[in-house]
UniProtKB/TrEMBL annotation:
Residues 5-193 form the Hydantoinase/oxoprolinase N-terminal domain. The lineage of its organism: Bacteria, Bacillati, Actinomycetota, Actinomycetes, Pseudonocardiales. It comes from Kibdelosporangium persicum. Residues 518-691 form the Acetophenone carboxylase-like C-terminal domain. InterPro entries: ACX-like_C, ATPase_NBD, Hydant_A_N, Hydantoinase_A, Oxoprolinase-like. This is Acetophenone carboxylase gamma subunit. It comes from the Bacteria. Residues 214-501 form the Hydantoinase A/oxoprolinase domain.
Length: 700
């Protein structure tokens, strides 16, 4: 029987899921093992094999594919552990990366930070100026060569960078997105000098107008590409030596996978890979439950992540920002804050309780792990409050130390604030819920939607413990906690259930609507590029679907909206149909009557996304029905738990999730113990187990 595996390497834990395609799904959770994260991956596979009752070699030999989400790229960028990169730019244009389009002080900043002009700072440059060199060439806005490439100068510049010991070179020439011939020749000349050097071209990585964003994307791709290659290729070789026959696939920011041997070439597309798995898992679960609009909430060890699914599809963004630098890579729009289970609690100079963004991560971890951590975290607070059992996590393999948790909270929070340890713990718990709830509200409302039209899904190691709290004031109709066989490995389930997704784009700024023959030409070119890219994946596809879109804006505005383009023959009416879609979307976000077509509309970038199904069924199986709504057969006992600062500690029934059946009903306060997490059902909330084993929470 074949298998599909999903492996999600987070900052604290590595989650894994295996599905046999016939209704059996098992999951595993092991600590992440930095810096050698592949050790944690192999350990998770060993645990999956044990759950299935087979050897690792047998499991891998029968695995159709492994879909892998990795933090390697994003961690490298955030922490600065990147390759030394050189830049080759058109003469007179190398400084675009330092000028930053006059927006470097505000990119990626909150409204509060933007208003605080005295404290605004540009980030440290991506590369030092002595590694940013120029060559003579010029292509105009139409793609016509005005000044030929000076190849002797390219050789001298390339040799200079090689002599400096760079590990990669980024090439970003002016207007290369219209004609990449000079960039391709530069790569050939570099490889004459250093055949194995990693070289990335802006015309391949980011063929969009706007020089600064295109250059920053290309440089960051070069910074993480070599590191990703040194991580993925040995991992792939180790898996193959252990028996893997199918491909190793890597999740990308836009919610689909790419083969591991191609991923380093497009490393920047993997920056949000671990953020996408939960949203894709939510989309698959929503298909089974019949939900069209979903807010996905994933509380891991380090971060709180929120994504939106609207009309059955994830809400996308054309790019993202890391360290105040833009990245031109389509991505599932995921909102994030550093407020996970390992978020560090502290008291600032003004006597205010802070939670995050710093995290205890996997090493040393929360104080209660007993691995040397001394600062209190959200996990320590939940242990003191009785939400977590001292028996610990991972089915008892990760015992928790109450004495260390209390000591950390006492020293760093309780005594500075004049509180008892218990009062400090409930304050930490409530700050976590408030921060998460605030992020959710912004994520939904700022996207132009009403939270009352959505269902919330809560997963991750700490999500089920907090979801009833952070969703309380949001107004959602219900909160679904995926349990059953995936429990807190839900993001890994999303990876296993993902498709291969590739995209291609080109910029051609012009007034819109354009002649139908122009649309036909652009999309024919992009779709041909995607067909060739899919062929290079060397993966058998079940079927392929194609989505077209174009980035439109009103004249004189600086931001665009990605607008769906119909998958039909282009006629003189097509432009009007696209304009209507653009205006409906614009007014949904900015308010009725905000649009003004009389100002003119411009098309900037055309895009095609191909989704190729791997054809492996990874649907969640149904669970056995209960004989009655009474969950007494799943009762483990009770423990003293504090879920509300106004009530304090109360005896609270504790249920074993493995014994819960479809139709069982819980009335809060209650706790559901899962080997890798807990579900909190506060007073005023009821929970009902659905046909897939999920616990559905409703406010009474």
């Amino acid at each position: 029987m074949p298998y599909a595996l999903g492996i999600d390497v987070g900052g604290t834990f590595t989650d894994a899921v295996a599905s046999d395609g016939a209704g059996r799904i098992v999951s595993a959770k092991t600590p992440t093992t930095p810096p050698n994260r592949e050790a944690g991956v192999m350990r998770a596979i060993e645990d999956l094999a044990a759950e299935l009752g087979v050897g690792v070699g047998e499991l891998l030999s029968r695995t159709d594919y492994i879909a892998h989400g990795t933090t390697a790229s994003i961690n490298a960028l955030v922490q600065g552990t990147v390759a030394d990169v050189g830049l080759i730019a058109t003469k007179g244009h190398r400084d675009s990366i330092y000028i930053m389009n006059a927006e470097g002080r505000t990119l990626g900043r909150s409204a509060h930070e933007i208003q605080d002009t005295l404290r605004q700072r540009k980030p440290a440059p991506l590369i030092p100026k002595y590694r940013a060199l120029e060559v003579t060439e010029r292509i105009d806005h139409a793609g016509k060569i005005l000044v030929p490439l000076d190849e002797d100068e390219v050789r001298r510049v390339a040799q200079s960078l090689v002599d400096q010991g760079v590990e990669a070179i980024a090439v970003c020439l002016l207007w290369s997105f219209k004609n990449g011939v000079h960039e391709r020749r530069v790569r050939e000349l570099i490889h004459e000098i250093a055949p194995d050097l990693y070289v990335t071209l802006s015309s391949e990585v980011s063929p969009r107008i706007r020089e600064f964003a295109r250059t920053s994307t290309t440089i960051m791709n070069a910074q993480v590409g070599p590191r990703l290659r040194t991580y993925l290729l040995p991992l792939q070789e180790q898996l193959e030596r252990s028996g893997l026959k199918g491909p190793l696939l890597v999740m990308q920011s836009e919610g689909g996978t790419i083969t591991a041997d191609r991923a380093p070439e497009h490393a920047i597309t993997t920056v949000g890979s671990v953020l996408s798995g939960g949203v894709i898992g939510g989309m698959r679960l929503a298909e089974q439950l019949g939900h069209r609009n979903v807010i996905t909430t994933d509380v891991g060890g380090t971060t709180f992540l929120a994504g939106l699914i609207v009309d059955g599809e994830p809400v996308m963004a054309p790019g993202s920002i890391v360290n105040q630098f833009p990245i031109n890579a389509a991505t599932i729009r995921v909102h994030t804050i550093g407020s996970g289970g390992g978020a560090l609690a502290s008291v600032d100079a003004g006597g205010n309780l802070r939670l995050g963004p710093q995290s205890a991560e996997a090493v040393p971890g929360p104080a209660c792990y007993g691995n040397g951590g001394t600062r209190p975290t959200n996990t320590d607070a939940n242990l003191v409050l009785g939400i977590l059992s001292e028996r610990g996590l991972l089915g008892g393999r990760k015992p928790l130390r109450m004495d260390l948790a209390r000591q950390a909270i006492r020293e760093h929070v309780a005594e500075p604030l004049g509180l008892t340890v218990e009062q400090a713990a409930i304050a930490i718990h409530e700050v976590q819920n408030a921060q998460a709830g605030d992020l959710l509200r912004r994520a939904v409302v700022q996207a132009g939607y009403d939270p009352r039209d959505f269902v919330a899904y809560a997963f991750g190691g700490a999500g089920p413990a907090h979801c009833a709290g952070y969703c309380h004031d949001l107004g959602v109709s219900e909160v679904v906690v995926p349990l059953g066989p995936v429990a807190s490995a839900f993001s890994a389930y999303g990876l296993a259930a993902s498709d291969v997704v590739l995209s291609a784009e080109l910029s051609d700024p012009s007034s819109f609507p354009v002649d139908p023959t122009v649309l036909e030409s652009h999309y024919a070119r992009l779709e041909a590029d995607l067909r060739r890219a899919l062929d290079r994946q060397k993966v058998k596809f079940h079927d392929v679907t194609v989505q077209r879109e174009v980035d439109l804006r009103y004249s004189m505005q600086v931001t665009e909206l990605a607008t769906a383009v119909p998958d039909t023959e282009f006629t003189e009416h097509t432009g009007e149909e696209i304009l209507q879609r653009f205006e409906e979307q614009y007014e949904r976000i900015n308010g009725s009557g905000a649009g003004y077509r009389e100002a003119g509309v411009q098309a900037i970038t055309y895009r095609v996304r191909a989704k190729a199904s791997l054809g492996f069924p990874v649907a969640l199986p149904e669970v056995a029905p209960a004989e009655s709504p009474d969950p007494a057969e799943a009762l483990l006992g009770e423990r003293s738990v504090c879920l509300d600062s106004r009530i304090g500690f109360v005896p609270t029934p504790v249920y074993d999730y493995a014994r819960l059946r479809a139709g069982h009903e819980l009335v809060g306060p209650a706790i559901v113990d899962v080997p890798t997490t807990v579900v909190v059902v506060p007073a005023g909330v009821t929970g009902r187990v659905d046909r897939l084993g999920n616990l559905v929470l409703r406010y009474t």
